[in-house]
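Hi U.,

Before I forget, here's the chain from the pilot set. I'm dumping it here mostly so it's searchable later in email.
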Amino acid sequence: MTEINFAWSALGGDPALPARVTTVAREGALEARLPVRQLARACVGACALAAAELGAQRAGLAEVPAVRVDDGAVAAAFHSERLLRVDGRAPVAFAPLSRFWRTSDGWVRTHANYPHHRARLLAALDLPDSASVEEVAGRLAQRPALEAESAVCGAGGLAIALRCPKEWAAHEQAVEVAARPLVERVRLDSAPARVLPPPTAASSPLLPAAGLRVLDLTRVLAGPVATRTLALLGADVLRLDAPQMPELADQQADTGMGKRSATLDLATGRAAFEELLASADVVVTGYRPGALDRFGLSPRALADRRPGLVVAQVSAWGAYGPWGGRRGFDSLVQVASGIAAVEGSAGQPGALPAQALDHGTGYLLAAAVLRALTEQSYDGGSRLVRLALARTARWLTDGIRPESRAGVPAAGPRVWLAERDSALGRLRYALPPVSFAGGPADWARPPVPWGSDPARWA
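Structure:
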């Protein structure tokens, strides 16, 4: 089974449809020891196919439009946060305290891009807020890696000890992850089938998600990639953030394409949220599993109040096992799962050529939403779809065979870049890799400043 067939099967799709997908393989795209290119291609291809399927269903087409996946476009999109320019300025990918550190017996990687994560890291190490990189390095060098991981995570921060693949495979969380499907799909109730109107006029691009309302409660990076893709496909995507938790400006510029952005305190703005939910079609969450349940945002609670809803969830480690409630990011999942060990050299840990777990999982999450909407059109039911970066990592390390066939030479990323003006400045950005006959080639609108829209539907 090819990677696209496997991903499509995990999404519950018609096994005949992957024949509609053609691929332009390019040598050197997302080059790594692990088969990153194949994973990325499959995730984007499955997403484009799900979009084409829903578009065909809504428009009453006789067949699903053909899908084309170009490795060059996929590679550019998987580097979108690195290729972004705002008024010519390159973004800062990682803060000074987000990096690998030597410990007394190995390595640990921390993530401290957000101020609150930085503060928790320093508190766990008993260091002042003014602590330097050298002071953190000195403190971590005195501790075993697993001890540092436990202390920082226990304080609500983010640190993961470097593990080899064998060590991770024996870990209780890895065992739990391996027992789950790549895409978890659950029917929550017996809500009636949804009848969606044709998406667009005949002269317009085919927008499979046109007219659909998506509440986006996600943060870096997989969730925003998924909702950015739904916005590309015509959905009205409203991102909601707590007013005291601003998004990083470069993240907003990269993943805010096509969306609107509002702030809403779920603790005090419950009535406003319920008004939004009353006409929402999709809710996407990207916080730790269970973190939003106290606000009535568990999948079943949402479906009880809005029958026919599609709830999509993404997390780092999965909503199960001893790490089910733990924070995490792509870079940390790479370290825990053995990817950093495999990609390293000369005793130094390494990394994938892109945040492929985030991007790949994001496109799969969007695909799962699109497939759920298609299934609802004839089978009804509120739906839950759920993915985890750690499960995508397992597919990469254990489920994809290296590619042997050669491709055409890789072109530079400029072929798949565009520029436009925005309220954030002049943007250079990666074009979307999701491509099917008659579909959109770019987002309808640029990103807006974080929190600049009202918390209501357009």
